[in-house]
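Quick log. Single chain, no ligands specified.
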Amino acid sequence: MKNIEYLKFGSHQLDSLTALHVSGDFDAVIQLLQGQVTSDCKMLSIGHGQPSALCDEKGYVWCNFDILIHDDKVLIIIDIEFQDVFIKEISKFAPFFKVSIEPYQTKVIGWIRHPEEQIKENEHVIIESDGVNMALALIVNDQPDSNKVYQEAPEWAIGRKLLGDHLIGPKDQGIFRPHELNQNIHRVSFSKGCFRGQEIIARMEYLGKQKKQTQLIIHSSLDDVSACKVIGSTLESNGQFFSSCLGAKDLF
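-> predicted structure:
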């Protein structure tokens, strides 16, 4: 794996993430999400979640999140800044499925594991790449386990960039389609059937010629970062600056 030396293996407390419970009959919940989000919710299973996105009818990404099944509940793990966007958009259709969306009280912990490490019972693998596992663990109590040492959240976000998963920030909402962000790799199913924005996104996959894409660029100074079109946030670790940069495909 390229740049694997920058990965910080271990646990990461993710205070910027919150959980939403999509509540109702399980099959109805899956049916609702299946028609709205980009991933194939029918492929969800215990211990294996999935990165996903919500797009508008023109295929522009409105928010990113992870979906998982925990204690027989379908949960959306999403940045606090985007939870209202998700609730507003899904709530337009929820009454037709007799489904509601409500907060789920939990601590969200991220794990980056070596391939030989065993995934624990309460963890949900969301990305597997070159033998590296990124998993979310939900801890349903007031405080994380005091016997564990949790690293800072930026190291988790940097890990996602290193594994090629580039998330949007509030400033990017409704501006880019999945292919421009490389989200077509981890976050979009092209075999599930219709979802919001599917027709345009599928056309880009099979008929379009991609002119722009997003790649991780590691800079040694903020001055270098300013020359790039940055998706999401630039993150700093040990004097290095990690940016998801959008540019002409030939540039990368």
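The chain has a mean pLDDT of 88.
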